[in-house]
Design brief:
It contains 15 helices and 14 strands. The protein has 389 residues and is an alpha/beta fold. The protein has three domains: 126 residues, NAD(P)-binding Rossmann-like Domain (Rossmann fold, 3-Layer(aba) Sandwich), CATH 3.40.50.720; 152 residues, NAD(P)-binding Rossmann-like Domain (Rossmann fold), CATH 3.40.50.720; 76 residues, 2-Layer Sandwich (Ribosomal Protein S8, Chain: A, domain 1), CATH 3.30.1370.170. The strands form three sheets. It has a seven-stranded parallel β-sheet, sandwiched between helices. Strands 2-1-3-4-5 form a five-stranded parallel β-sheet. A two-stranded parallel sheet has the order 13-14. Strand 4, helix 4 and strand 5 form a beta-alpha-beta unit. Helix 5 crosses helix 6 and helix 5 packs across helix 12. It is globular.
Length: 389
């Protein structure tokens, strides 16, 4: 019996496509790699499956003349997919919800610890405002609550009956969130239509209602924050802002960047596990769509590099110790330095993509083992954050 032949065109920055597809029995795969931002109709004309990331707009212009029957995006967001057109064509598609949720939450945790140490503040007792309580927002709550913060959230798409974190996270109105939170962290999709669009959700009016001392983080989509309004707010209030995503990226406004405290090139979710998990999820969805069996699990193919045995500092200051630990795993200072340096290159937008493509291996907390944790309180906290003790 002849084996089925499937051609996959995949973003050249998507890890593990070959390894994950190899777990499907009875199929010979031909995997063709292409730069995601430069993908053309000619590139995908003979593809059966198309695997992309957030930088590739998937529209009729790209696919109308192709034989593609499945589109997978190894991302949580889907604003780069023309979903109505795909559905109209009967073309199957899938995203990878939650694939890098833990990685983004670890980025938020590390950032909070870093800023608290820089400003000689304590996180315990502060009010954390989560905007969007999907996969990422829930992970943020799970990791931040053990540090003693009060966590509130705004998500009008989740009814009170279905609120996913009863008793731990308080649902609030948009006005209450803006007036109350000491730290804002954004984890919404980018939408321009519907009852609650998120495009420019943080506009001049919203920023004016926030405490001038409140920190603002965005690791969702750049255009959720109006960058014109943000620039004005930064100039007036000197607000502490950390941006991983940018309106108009890969092009970054130098005037905004100059006033942002921490900047990075859309890599908050770039853990090794998060990237491989996204690939595994869309390969799994493609296989299911065609009645194929994906054997084993992600652990069968996940690389073992980057896992370390670390030493718990044990100074007696829990937040300072956590900062010293997590700063080894999420290098926000290095990310910031490299991104700022890239703007001085002849093609800064190309440099932005290069930073993403060559991002250092980063493992999530559970990949690491901690030694010298003799204090039971610290041990319980570290286990709650996912570390092996």
């Amino acid at each position: 019996m002849s084996r089925q032949q499937i051609t996959v065109v995949a973003d050249d920055n998507m890890p593990g496509v070959e390894a994950c597809c190899a777990q499907i029995a009875g199929v010979d795969f031909r995997v063709v790699r292409r730069p995601g931002r430069e993908l053309t109709a000619a590139d995908v004309a003979q593809a059966d499956w198309l695997f992309v990331r957030s930088i590739t707009p998937v529209t009729s212009g790209l696919l109308a003349a192709s034989r593609v029957r499945f589109v997978g995006t190894a991302t949580i967001g889907t604003d780069h997919l023309d979903i109505p057109w795909l559905n109209q064509q009967g073309m199957a598609w899938s995203a990878a919800p939650g694939c890098n949720a833990r990685a983004v939450a670890e980025w938020v945790l590390t950032l909070c610890l870093r800023l608290a140490q820089e400003q000689q503040q304590h996180l315990a007792g502060k009010v954390l405002g989560i905007v969007g309580l999907g996969h990422v927002g829930r992970w943020v709550a799970d990791l931040m609550l053990p540090l003693g913060l009060r966590v509130i959230a705004y998500d009008p798409l989740i009814g009170t009956d279905a609120w996913p974190v009863h008793g731990r996270v308080q649902p609030v109105s948009w006005a209450e969130l803006l007036a109350t939170a000491d730290i804002f962290t954004i984890h919404t999709p980018l939408t321009k239509v519907g009852q609650f669009p998120t495009f420019h959700l943080f506009d001049q009016a919203a920023l004016a209602q926030m405490k001038p001392s409140a920190w603002l983080f965005n690791a969702a989509r750049g255009a959720v924050i109006d960058h014109d309004a943000l620039l004005q707010d930064l100039q007036q209030n000197g607000r502490v802002v950390a941006l991983d995503v940018w309106e108009g990226e890969p092009h970054i406004r130098p005037d905004v960047l100059a006033l942002v405290r921490y900047a990075s090139p859309h890599i908050a979710g770039h853990s090794l596990e998060g990237k491989w998990r996204g690939t595994w999820q869309i390969v799994q969805a493609a296989a299911a769509h065609e009645g194929l069996t994906l054997a084993g699990s992600l652990q069968n193919v996940l690389p073992t590099i980057g896992a370390e045995t670390l030493t718990w500092p044990m100074t007696g200051d829990t937040e300072a110790d956590l900062h010293a630990l997590t700063a080894q795993l999420v290098d926000q200072a290095g990310d910031d330095e490299r991104l700022r340096a890239s703007l001085h290159e002849s093609h800064p937008s190309t440099a932005f993509d290069a930073l993403r493509k060559h991002y250092p291996v980063r493992r999530e907390f559970p990949a690491h083992r901690l030694q010298t944790v003799s204090d039971e309180t610290s041990r319980k906290l570290l286990i709650a954050l996912g570390f092996c003790c």
